[in-house]
Amino acid sequence: MKLEIYNQKGKKTSKQADLNKDVFGISPNEHSIYLSVKSEMASKRQGTSKSKSRSEVRGTGSKPWKQKGTGRARIGSIRNPSRPGGGTAFGPEPRNYNLKVNKKVKAIARKSILSSKFAAKSIMILDKINIDKPKTKSFNEIVKNLGLESKKVTFLIGEKDDVVYMSSRNLHNINTYLADTVSNYDLINNEVVVLDQKSLEFFNKIWI
Question: Mean pLDDT across the chain, nearest whole number?
Answer without folding.
Answer: 92
